Amino acid sequence: MVNQPWWRNAVIYQVYVRSFADGNGDGAGDLFGLLDHLEYIASLGVDGIWLNPCYPSPQMDHGYDVSDYFDIEPAYGDLEIFDHLMMRANKLGLRILMDVVPNHCSDQHAWFTEAVAAGRGSRERERFWFREGQGVDGELPPNNWKAVFGGGAWSRITEPDGSPGQWYLHTFTPWQPDFNWLNEDVVDYFDRMLRFWFDRGVDGFRVDAVTVVGKHPDLPNAPDTPAGMTEMAAWASNPYTLFWPSAHDIWRHWREVIDQYERDNPIRELVTVAEAYTPGRPDLLLKFVEPDQFHQSFTFDLLLSPWNAQSFHKTAAKSYRSLHASGSSITWALNNHDVHRVVTRYGRTDAHLTSSWTGNNLVNSDASVDLEMGHRRARAAALLILGLPGAVYLYMGEELGLPEVLDIPDSARQDPIFARTEGREKGRDGCRVPMPWTSGSANLNGFSTSTSVEAWMPQPAGWGEMSVEVQEQLGDSMLNLYRQALQLRPRLVDEGKDIEFVGDGADGLFSFTRGSCAVIVNTSADFVEIPATLTDNRSVILESVQGATTNRDGSKLLAGNTAVWLG
Ligand code: BGC
């Protein structure tokens, strides 16, 4: 087989630093804690780590409001500890990806405070989108754009002389002013930033919110939206920023910077993975992974799909076919720090109904949850995602089968979505609850080095029962299933053959073959016969639960809500 870049089939473990391990005893995760647990990550059998933003930040959106792109958040460590972490990770065979946030920075970033101070018409203001307001005294925002996290997309500043001033654009929250990428200072700044971290050994970047970085330069009003539409839906129907094509010039430029870096440093193989939600539109996704742009883009349609074989066929198979034909590296995830954890999503009593699913199900749903069913399906989903060809991103705690914590008291919620929507949307805190490492509740189930500190986000009762310590002792734990699957995965990957999807899911099976191997997922509640074309000359490599397959009258049956790898 032709030598492929390391990232094409890589499995990357996502670390939400705040929630992974607290090594300095302040109740929030940090790089010291990560360093202490690197062996654990390596023991899973993954190829690398993606670190959510760990740059200095006021943490209004937990690091996605960066105040300095060239340093480490002091509460997490410093550059020295980061360098140490890089070295240790590399020794363990783990690559490190950082997270870059190009759309916006923090309102505490020096450029933004300088822009406010410098006044109208200044070069400093050109780096952002400052505009005069409408109305007699400029008291109305410059246009009708909505923010992703609720409310309007504009906030008004007070000018240095104390008068009510210009407005600035923020796609997310007022604490996250959008950069103006038509400005050369911004372009140069990020060129330097990419090289700065590559020079420290970073192997690539996950690139945040790429679909909103472009903006119509005149910032026209967005078309009116029907009354009653949620803030998020209203925002997503703004054609003057979402998928606005000017962003692609930036990604092409970044690719030149990266390709040049690789030519100058021939042993380096760098990767960028775009965060681009393009529901039902693989054609839009393709635009981000043209050969002169990102190396990868998450294929989120699988994550957005309900637990339904027909839907898996429509989403995974459709995405695969279009991305494969383009030669792009296909990249899957079922979890991340922005969506409800898969155990809970698939545990929702209506999770299997294609028609019942709404985007809300990912972050906000009232449907009742059957956690036992959710776990069973999540085990099967692990074999599904690790069986698919391409790269896979796992989110910390997924390997423990952690559920979404749904009952966080409102007073403890920190996600800006909660406050910005006045509680209408609960937000994403429930998938960011600190990891349980041990079963004892002292030290926050092993999360912290302190015995007296409170976690930045409370852990629910019984959290320690799902800890790493407990699951390491149980042969059939979720953790051991992930370990086994990761160990056996090369058998599928090494096939290097084109994938063939079998059937259309109407029988409840989502199935595909990879050369001599086959992956079969039964999303129905009942036993289903596996077609003989899939079982002939193949035996079981791995089942999502022991005994998932049984032989009856010369056929092989697969139990409801399970999966199997055959080969
Ligand atoms: C990140 C979120 C973040 C937002 C704003 C997203 O796509 O994944 O966690 O809140 O971008 O930066």
Shape: globular
What share of residues is helical?
25-40%
The CATH superfamily of the largest domain is identified as Glycosidases
| Count of β-strands | 19
Q: What is the domain tally?
A: 3
- CATH fold category name of the largest domain: TIM Barrel
| Proportion of beta-strand residues | 5-15%
Named at the architecture level, the CATH assignment of the largest domain is: Alpha-Beta Barrel
The largest sheet is: 8 strands, parallel, barrel
Structural class: alpha/beta
Number of helices: 18
Task: Tell me the radius of gyration.
Answer: 24 Å
Strand order of the largest sheet: 1-2-3-7-8-9-10-11
Class of the largest domain, according to the CATH hierarchy?
A: Alpha Beta
What is this structure, in a nutshell?
This protein is of the alpha/beta class and 567 residues long. It contains 18 helices and 19 strands. It has helices at 17-20, 31-36, 38-44, 79-91, 110-118, 184-199, 231-236, 247-264, 282-288, 301-304, 309-326, 342-347, 371-387, 416-420, 443-446, 468-473, 478-493, 532-535, and strands at 11-15, 48-51, 95-100, 130-131, 154-158, 164-169, 204-207, 271-274, 296-298, 329-333, 391-395, 499-502, 509-514, 517-522, 528-529, 540-543, 549-552, 555-558, 562-566.
What does this structure look like?
The protein has 567 residues and is an alpha/beta fold. The protein folds into three domains: 6-103 and 184-486, TIM Barrel, CATH 3.20.20; 110-169, Oligo-1,6-glucosidase, Domain 2 (Oligo-1,6-glucosidase, domain 2); 497-566, Immunoglobulin-like. It is 29% helix and 15% strand. It has 18 helices and 19 strands. Helix 9 (282-288) runs parallel beside helix 11 and helix 13 (371-387) packs parallel to helix 17. The structure holds beta-D-glucopyranose (BGC). Residues 61, 64, 101, 172, 208-209, 275, 337-338 line the site of beta-D-glucopyranose (BGC). Residues 61, 64, 101, 172, 208-209, 275, 337-338 line the site of beta-D-glucopyranose.
